[in-house]
Amino acid sequence: MEKFEHVLSEMKNTLCEELKSFLERFENYEDERFQENLFVSFPFIELFYILDGNGIQIIDNVINPLYIKKVSRFGKGADRSSRPYYLEVVKEKKCIVTKPYKSVSSSEISATVAIPIIDENGSIKKILCFDIDLIALLQSDKHFYTKDKFEKITKIFYTVFSIFLGLISVKLVLWGSLNLFIIDPNPEHIFKSVILVTLAIAIFDLSKTIFEEEVLLYKDPRRHSEIRKTLTRFLASIIIAISIEALMLVFKFTISDPSKLIYSMGIIASVGFVLISLGIYVFLGTKSEISVKKFEREFK
C-alpha cells in the first residue's frame, strides 16, 4: 500500500485538475456521451456515481466496460454519508482523493476521487465520485503526466497552422480579384480568377475545420467516430473544390481547345470515385460503431 500512497500523493493534484478540466466540457453528467468519453479518456476509472448533498447516491453505478463483470451496476439510493470521502469532501469543499483501499466490488487496489459541485450559496449540490484502479493508473501514469502538456503544444501548433492557411486563402482571393479589372474579350482571366477563389475557399474551409476540430472542440483520437467526422469534413471540402475546378476546365476547353475535354472528364471521374469511396467509408464506419454500441449494451 505504501507504493500506492506515494503515487497518489504525487498525482493527487494532477488527477483532480484533469478530471475537473474534463467535467467542464459537459453539462449533463448522466448523459451517455459523457460516460463514454469518461472511460475513454480515463481508462483506469472503474466506475462513476453521483451523490446528493446529504450523501445519498442518486444514480446507479456507471461502470467502465473493462470492469463490467467485476462491479455491480446498482447502487442508487445507497447512503454514503458515513464514508470517509464524503465526510472529507463536505469538510474541504474541494476535490479530494482518498487513501488506497481494497475495493469490495472489484477486489482491486482502489482510491476514490470526489469532486463537489457547489451552488451559488456555497452549499454542496452534488458530489461526483470516481473509483480508480490504482494498478491501471500506475501503468498509464507516464501518459497521464505528459498528456496535458502535449495537448497544449499540439493546440498551439494547430492554431498557428490554421492562421497560416487562412492568410494563404486571403492572398489567393486578392490575386483572383486583380483580374476583375482586366477588360479583355478572352475569358481566360475569368477562369483564372474562379480557380484562385475556389482554391482559396477550399483552403479556408480546411483551416476552419482544423481549428474547430483540433483547438476548440474536445476530440479523442481513439474514438473512430471523431476521426470519421474530421475526415468527412475535410474530404467534402476537397471534393467541392475539385468539382468546381473540373467545371471551369470544361468551360475553358470547350471555348479554347475541345480536344482537351478528356482531361477535365478524367478529373470529374476521379471526383466521383472519391465521393463513392467516402460514402462506403462513412457507411462501414457507422455500421461498425452501431455494432460496438449494441455489443456494449448486451453486456450491461
Model regions low in confidence, pLDDT < 50 over at least 5 residues: none
Proportion of residues in extended strands: 5-15%
Would you identify the CATH H-level superfamily of the largest domain?
PAS domain
Biggest beta sheet attributes = 6 strands, antiparallel
CATH class of the largest domain: Alpha Beta
Tell me the overall shape.
elongated
Order of helices and strands: HHEEHEEEEHHHH
With helices defined by DSSP (H or I, 4 residues minimum), what is the helix count? 7
Q: What is the CA-atom radius of gyration, in angstroms?
A: 27 Å
**Gap from first CA to last CA:** 32 Å
Question: Would you give the CATH topology of the largest domain?
Answer: Beta-Lactamase
User: How many distinct beta strands?
Assistant: 6
DSSP helix fraction: 55-70%
Question: Which structural class is indicated by helix and strand composition?
Answer: alpha+beta
Instruction: Identify the CATH architecture of the largest domain.
Output: 2-Layer Sandwich
- Total separate domains: 2
Global mean pLDDT: 80
SSE topology:
Layout: H1 2-23, H2 32-41, E1 45-52, E2 62-63, H3 84-92, E3 96-97, E4 101-102, E5 109-118, E6 124-133, H4 134-178, H5 188-216, H6 224-256, H7 261-299
Antiparallel strand pairs: 1-2, 1-6, 3-5, 4-5, 5-6
Helix pairs in contact: 1-4, 4-5, 5-6, 6-7
Protein name: General glycosylation pathway protein
Keywords: Membrane, Transmembrane, Transmembrane helix
Organism: Sulfurihydrogenibium azorense (strain DSM 15241 / OCM 825 / Az-Fu1)
